[in-house]
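Marked as duplicate of an earlier ticket. Keeping the data here for the record.
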Amino acid sequence: MIYYRDDVIQIDTWKGAYRKIGMCSNWTICDAKTGEILLTASCIWLMMNEETRRLSKFPDEVRSELDKHFTNTTLPVVAKKWSPRDEMSIVDHVRNGIMPRWSDLDMNQHVNNVKYIGWILESVPHSIVENYELASLTLEYRQECKMESVVQSHTYVMVSNNGKIGDYDHVDCKHALQLETGGGEIMRGWSIWRPKQYGNRLGLE
């Protein structure tokens, strides 16, 4: 469905506890007139010690204050570990030499995690971006990315027709952001793409 400038949407958000080291934020965006759900999103936030850069539990006084605002909620599914070598048929697309800019850094002097979404799209094949639209995205952040980092973006297209995409009703991709030096993994992700409502779909080049 296409929405225009004068359309009105409603945004609902709520939070819940996530173990002892974090919290879960949830959002629902719907059509204010019909109630149709347009988008849902969930995110797990974890506490990190600024000195050790390791995960840390919430202080008891902070947790007790937050608990007043938490609601019972279904936690999002955290994706399991995977390796491209585990898949029988994949096509790997790589974008090298991605470097952060000063404007990409947050107050902790590492790349803001929202920036990673754009870096993922850098390696998605043009034939998918042009003929499909993003329907679902799951991201799992693995470590910090700093100003001096140089990043590789990998998109693994899950296919079963000798590495080519035909007239599929959806396309599944797995993603990885890695440091070019040392190969450390910054982020991994999963995406589902559905056909656009217009235009012809092309084969994967």
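See parent ticket for discussion. The two ends are 29 Å apart (CA to CA).
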